[in-house]
Amino acid sequence: MSRVPWIIKYRPKSLNEIENQDDVKEQVKQWMDSWLKGKPEAKAILLYGPPGSGKTTLALALARDYKMELLEMNASDSRNLTAIKNIAERAATSGSLFGTRGKIIFLDEVDGINTKEDTGAIPAILELIQKTKYPVIMAANDPWDPSLRELRNSAKMIEVKKLGKYALKRILTKICQNEKIECEDEALSSIIDLSDGDARYAINILQSVAEGYKKVTKKLVEEISRRKESELDPFETLRSVFWAKYAWQAKNAVTSSQVDYDLLIKWFSENIPLQYSNMEDVWRAYDALSRASIFLTRAKLSDWGLLSYVFDLMGPGVALAEKGKGKPGWKAKWVKYQFPQTIQLLSKTKETREMMNSILEKIGKKMHSSTQKVLNDVYPFFTQYYNEKMGEKLDFSPREREYVINLRGRREETGEQPEEKRTKRYYKRNTRRT
Ligand SMILES: Nc1ncnc2c1ncn2[C@@H]1O[C@H](COP(=O)(O)OP(=O)(O)OP(=O)(O)O)[C@@H](O)[C@H]1O
Q1: What interface predicted TM-score (ipTM) does this complex get?
Q2: What distance in Å separates the CA atoms of residue 76 and residue 95, rounded to the nearest whole number?
Q3: Atom of ligand 1 nearest to the CA of 202
C-alpha cells in the first residue's frame, strides 16, 4: 500500500542535479578534493541552513559523485553516542580514502544534541574530527548555540541558503511531469509560497494533494494547507481515522494531528479494540500499527523520510483494517475514546521520575557521563554506598537525599534483592566462568 515518498524518489543523485546552491557545491567539492590530495583544508565541514534546503541531499550526492560510502548518523539521538565513539575509533585507524571504497561520515542534526543530558556527545564528535582519516560532514539548522562553539571552531562552516522560488518551481514541475499529474501553474505558485524555501515541505504537499485527488489545483492546495494549520486533538484524530472512508482522509488526519507520533500510537493502541468489534479487524489494525511503530523507530534513528510510511500505516493502515468499510450499509460506530492507560500510569509516577532524573543528571554532570550510562553502570552501586557527604558534594536537595536513603531503607526492610547485589553476583558468576 505504501508508496515511496517523493522526497526520496526525487532526491537528486548527483551534485549536478541539485538545484541552486552552486556556491555550496563548489566549496564542498573543493574541500573533498583537498582530502583526496591528502591535505584536507579542514577535517570536517558543517553545513548549516533551514530545513529542506538540501543539506542531507548534498552529502548523499557528494558521496555518490566521488563513489564513496556515506556513513550516516543522526547525532541528536543519544542512542547513537556509542556508535559515534566506535566510528571515531575505527575512523582513526582504518583504511585510506583510496582503498576499496572510501567513506564519508555524515552526522545529521548536530544542533539537536541535548548537551545537558548527553554530556559525552560533543566531546565524542570532537574526538572523531581530531582523529578521523575520513572526511566528516555535519549538518544543522541552527549552529549558533553556545554549546556548539567547539564544533564550529573545529569545522569549516558552509551556509546552505533556503531555496529560491524558481528552483522550487523547477523541482515541482519535474515531479509533475514524471508522475504525469495535472498541475495548475497557480497551484504550484501557492505551494511555493506556503513552503518558504523548504523543498521537503513543498514536495510533501504536492504528493498529498496529487495522491488524494489525482490532480493539483490551487483550491485543493489551499484546502490541504488550511487543514494542516488547524490541528486535530487526539479525539478528533482518532475519529477522523476510524471514520475515514478513503485512505487519503485517514492519512490527512494523522498528518494534521497535534499529537506527536509516539503518543498517537498509544492512543490508537488503547482504542482499536473499542472501535472495532470483529477480531480480525482488530488484528489487522494492530498489525498495521505495529509496523508504524517499527518505521517510526527507524525514521528517528536514520532517515526521517521513512515517516511517510508511519503515516500510511497509522492512518490508512488502521482505517482500512475494518472489512466492508465504505460499502453500502456500513456505518461508523460511535465510541467514547479512552485516554491511554500507559500515560495515566506514567503521570502518576511523574514526580518520582523527575526526581530520579534530576539525581542521575547531577551524578552525570560530575562524571561527565550521560544519564543513561549513570543509570546502567553507576546508580545501582551508588545507592548502596550513598552517604550524606556524597549528597552534599552532588548538591542534592533534601528531598533527593531522602529519596536515595528511603530507596535503600525500603530494600533492607522488605528484603528485596538490591540490584547492586544482583549485579555483583552476576559479575562474579560471569568472571568465574571465563
Ligand atoms: N537543492 C535541491 N535540489 C533538488 N531537490 C532538493 C534540493 N534541496 C532539497 N531537495 C529535496 O527536498 C528533500 C529534502 O531535502 P534535505 O533532506 O536534503 O533537506 P535538509 O536541508 O537536509 O533538511 P533538514 O535540515 O530538515 O534535515 C530532498 O529529498 C530533495 O527531494
Answers
A1: 0.97
A2: 27
A3: 12
